[in-house]
Amino acid sequence: MEVCYQLPVLPLDRPVPKHVLSRRGAISFSSSSSLFGAPDPRQLSQRRGAISYDSSDQTALYIRMLDVRVRSQVGFEPERRSSHPYLYIDFRTLHTRLDYGSTSASSAPERRVHRLLSFQRYLHSSRLLRGVPQQIPLHILDEDYTGQARCMLEKVGNWNFDIFLFDRLTNGNSLITLTFHLLNQYGLVELFQLDMVKLWRFLVMVQEDYHSDNPYHNAIHAADVTQAMYCYMREPMLAKSLTSCDILLGLLAAATHDLDHPGVNQPFLIKTDHYLATLYRNTSVLENHHWKSAVGLLRETGLFSHLPAEDSLNMERELGSLILATDISRQNEYLSRFRRHLDQENLCLSNGSHRHFILQMALKCADICNPCRPWELSKQWSEKVTEEFFQQGDIEKKHKLEVSPLCDRGINTVGNIQIGFMTYVAEPLFAEWARFSDTCLSQTMLGHMGLNKASWGSLQQEQTSVSEEAEPSSAGTDTEDSAAATRRNSNTATAAGGTSSKEIPQGSRES
Question: Is 448 a catalytic residue?
Answer without folding.
Answer: no
